[in-house]
């Protein structure tokens, strides 16, 4: 079990001086609130470059994660499972796919097993998984692209500027000083991190549930740094490698004492998680 799951209760879910955040995990009932969307008719394959098993309509909400091939993403979509399909947990070829909202989302070409079937009221739902070309995903619905675009529009952003995306993606809020104290790290080694506020969004249940996908680090109410696991490119700032294939981007900041302490803290934190 990822140690971040143990640490999550330490994170404050309220922002007394800022905003309310909401739930820390996306439930299946609102899984599309922050999911990516298809930009056009999308063919979904059983493997990277494999057979097309089903197709999705335009603007359909999906859960996605990167793969080892930068041109492909793994995806999952929640669809209705009929009574006839329940015994084999398999979506039958030739039928239309119906999403959680009761609307048609695509068409099944080849029969395929469905994952995590659950009953809600009088209907059953399960996840279809597969692979799509990255070009089939609307980049404007990808969190990392949203953050990068926001940073490119201006070099100084407050928490209020990011409030819509923080609320939409259910970011968890915590103060670094409180976390440092709870972790029993030496306070004197991180004395310059007082007042630093961080907003963290968990990774996809499809990828690494309980782990962090992306964090926004604010200093004096201004975006100071970004911690990310998935690709995120901006044309300014300095990027540093962190454990677990993460990276820290420091925006408009030389390697000050506070920057060095943040880099040290993040390195120690993620090393401890990986033990």
Short description:
The protein is an alpha+beta fold. Helix content is 18%, strand content 33%. The protein contains 5 helices and 17 strands.
Q: Structural class per helix/strand content?
A: alpha+beta
| Rg calc | 20 Å
Count of strand segments: 17
* pLDDT averaged residue by residue: 85
Order of helices and strands: HEEEEEEEEEEEHHEHEEEEEH
Beta fraction: 25-35%
Provide a count of the helices: 5
Low-confidence stretches: 8-30
Helix content: 10-25%
Inertia-based shape:
elongated
Main sheet attributes: strand count, strand direction, barrel closure: 6 strands, antiparallel
Give, in spatial order, the strands making up the sheet with the most strands. Answer: 12-13-14-15-17-16
Oligomeric state: single chain
- Measured between the Cα atoms of the first and last residue, the distance is 11 Å
Describe the structure.
This protein is of the alpha+beta class. Helices cover 18% and strands 33% of the residues. The chain has helices at 3-7, 143-153, 159-168, 176-182, 257-273, and strands at 36-37, 42-45, 52-56, 61-66, 72-81, 90-91, 96-98, 104-108, 112-113, 115-120, 123-133, 172-175, 197-202, 212-219, 222-228, 238-242, 246-250. Strands 12-13-14-15-17-16 form a six-stranded antiparallel β-sheet. Strand 2 and strand 3 form a beta hairpin. The N and C termini lie close together (11 Å). The relative contact order is 0.15.
SSE layout and pairing:
Layout: H1 3-7, E1 36-37, E2 42-45, E3 52-56, E4 61-66, E5 72-81, E6 90-91, E7 96-98, E8 104-108, E9 112-113, E10 115-120, E11 123-133, H2 143-153, H3 159-168, E12 172-175, H4 176-182, E13 197-202, E14 212-219, E15 222-228, E16 238-242, E17 246-250, H5 257-273
Antiparallel strand pairs: 1-4, 2-3, 3-8, 4-5, 5-11, 6-9, 7-8, 10-11, 12-13, 13-14, 14-15, 15-17, 16-17
């Amino acid at each position: 079990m990822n140690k971040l799951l143990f640490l999550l209760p330490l994170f404050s879910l309220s922002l007394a001086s800022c905003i309310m955040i909401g739930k820390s995990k996306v439930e299946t009932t609102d899984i599309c609130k922050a999911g990516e969307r298809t930009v056009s008719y999308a063919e979904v394959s059983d493997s990277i470059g494999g057979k097309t098993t089903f197709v999705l309509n335009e603007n359909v909400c999906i859960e996605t994660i990167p793969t080892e091939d930068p041109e492909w993403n793994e995806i999952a979509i929640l669809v209705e499972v009929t009574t006839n399909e329940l015994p084999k947990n398999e979506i039958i070829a030739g039928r239309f796919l119906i999403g959680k909202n009761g609307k048609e989302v695509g068409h099944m070409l080849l029969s395929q097993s469905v994952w995590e079937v659950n009953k809600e009221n009088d209907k059953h739902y399960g996840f279809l998984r597969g692979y799509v070309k990255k070009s089939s995903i609307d980049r404007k619905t990808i969190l990392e692209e949203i953050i990068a675009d926001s940073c490119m529009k201006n070099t100084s952003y407050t928490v209020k500027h990011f409030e819509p995306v923080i609320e939409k993606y259910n970011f968890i809020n915590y103060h670094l000083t409180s976390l440092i104290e709870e972790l029993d790290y030496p306070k004197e080694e991180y004395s310059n991190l007082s007042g630093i506020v961080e907003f963290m969004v968990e990774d996809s249940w499809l990828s690494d549930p309980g782990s962090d996908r992306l964090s926004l680090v604010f200093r004096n109410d201004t975006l100071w740094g970004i911690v990310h696991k998935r690709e995120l490119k901006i044309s300014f700032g300095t990027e540093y490698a962190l454990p677990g294939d993460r990276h820290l981007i420091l925006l408009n900041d030389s390697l000050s004492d506070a920057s060095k302490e943040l880099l040290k803290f993040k390195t120690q934190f993620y090393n401890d998680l990986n033990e």
